[in-house]
Structures are given as structure tokens and as C-alpha cells.
Design a protein that fits this description.
The protein is an alpha+beta fold. The protein is built from 5 helices and 8 strands, in the order ββαααβββαβαββ. The strands form 2 sheets. A 5-stranded antiparallel beta sheet has the order 1-2-3-4-5. Strands 6-8-7 form a 3-stranded antiparallel beta sheet. α1 crosses α3. The radius of gyration is 15 Å and the shape is globular. The chain starts with a strand and ends with a strand.
């Protein structure tokens, strides 16, 4: 089901048939370095990730990570969406794209659309994002969205220190 549309992109719910894409994306070196190993090693793991991650969050909160695909070709390029993590008070935005689709404005367009959706459709007043301090491309994207570094946080005791960016939506 399509949730958000931009000039070049459709953002839609993931389906278990997106398992090959998820297997590829979650095993990219950049995903493993900046987001972390989710233990997705085969297509069944990918389907379980889709069911227990994005689809479970959509069921519970009404939003989640969406598959970003080209309107022109229907090719899956990445993920972008809204997450509600137990360790964060606010909803945060997340994104990840396959290497072939980076640097072309797709992540910026998808993230801007998610910001608008968060404000207009969900009614959020504030949105945050977390990233490793070494993830310079994510930091550039977050600042281009008008988000500002607010603090450093850890999602769990003794966990990695992350930079928390925030933006007031209303």
C-alpha cells in the first residue's frame, strides 16, 4: 500500500515479497557500519525482519519504515520512514539507501516527504533522528532537513553514543 508520493518516488508498506531487497540492503557495508547487524542472512530472515520490524511498527503505531521505490521503474532503492523507539521520547526518522541510489537526491526527497507526513497526517509537533557521529552523509542530510544537533544519547546502557538531531514541526 502506497503511503507517501513525491514527484519521483513512492513510499509504500513493505511486503514479504521485498525479501531479496531487504537481504541486500541490510547486508550492505554502510548498513552494518552505521545501523548495525540485524542478523539477516537469508530470505527467511529477511521476511521475519519485515514482519517483526516495519510491519509490526505500522500495526502498532500506524507508521514505520517504508520501502522507497522509483515511480518510473518501480525499483526498490531504500527505506525511509518514522520509528517509535522505546529509548526515545519522540518519534524519529530513519533512512537507508542502496549505494546505486545515493547522491541523487532520493533520500532528501523521501525524508522531506516523511517530515511533511509526520506533521500533516500524524500531527507530530517534533521529530528527532539519531546517527553515529562518524556518519557524515546522514548528518548532512539531517541538517539539510532543518534538523539541529541537540544532544548525545545512547539507546541502551553502555551502548554507542549517538548524536540526536531534532526539529520542531509545528
Amino acid at each position: 500500500m502506497r503511503v507517501i508520493e513525491t514527484e519521483r518516488l513512492n513510499l509504500r508498506w513493505l511486503a514479504e515479497t521485498d525479501d531479496e531487497f531487504i537481504l541486500d540492503l541490510l547486508n550492505q557495508p554502510s548498513w552494518l557500519e552505521y545501523i548495525g547487524d540485524r542478523g539477516v542472512r537469508n530470505l527467511e530472515d529477511a521476511r521475519a525482519y519485515i514482519r517483526n520490524g516495519p510491519l509490526a511498527m505500522i500495526s502498532q503505531h500506524g507508521f514505520g519504515l517504508y520501502l522507497v521505490e522509483s515511480k518510473a521503474t518501480g525499483i526498490a532503492m531504500g527505506l525511509c520512514g518514522l520509528l517509535k523507539r522505546k529509548a526515545l521520547e519522540d518519534v524519529d526518522i530513519g533512512f537507508a539507501f542502496l549505494p546505486d541510489y545515493r547522491g541523487r537526491g532520493y533520500a532528501t526527497a523521501a525524508a522531506n516527504a516523511c517530515l511533511e507526513y509526520a506533521s500533516d497526517q500524524i500531527g507530530l509537533e517534533r521529530l528527532v533522528a539519531i546517527t553515529l557521529p562518524t556518519n557524515k552523509s546522514s548528518i548532512r542530510l539531517l541538517t539539510s532537513l532543518g534538523m539541529h544537533h541537540e544532544s548525545d544519547v545512547s539507546l541502551d546502557e553502555g551502548g554507542q553514543l549517538l548524536q540526536l538531531f531534532a526539529k520542531k514541526l509545528r
